[in-house]
Amino acid sequence: MNQIIKNKYVKNKKELGNLVEMYKKQGMKVVLTNGCFDIIHAGHIEYLQKARELGDVFIVGINTDSSVKKIKGEKRPINTLKDRMAVLGGLAAVDHLIAFNEDRPANLILSAKPDIYVKGGDYKPERLRSTVIVEKLGGKVVIIPFKKGKSTTEIINRILEVYQPASRN
Question: Is residue 123 in a domain?
């Protein structure tokens, strides 16, 4: 990077837009992904590393606690936004982090104007609502398959299975 940005944490969407504009003026390819990233596991790390390899600057949008509750249910997130951001911020693959409060990333995408928008899982780009927005902005959508057997929900279920007291008869 020609201009080093020391702070990984982006305060708001306006700041994000300015940051992306600066990178693009330097000819850098901007990659964006988003998610809850509640309990970071090997599947997340592999996904984030693969997404990072697609461009020069990697930005991660992270759902706020209230938006995680809307998406995942009242018992989530397990980790607070502050803690989730600290963990993601400690990863070398992640250049910048921004919290967003919506349950869908449309406004985040509009602010970031990514060259590449990455989603994990078994989505088909043509069935992903965000594809229309990304393509209108001149970007493309890349799907990175999830690692089988690696999900936050599976980890929570395994913990409950191991540590939940057996029901007494």
Answer: yes
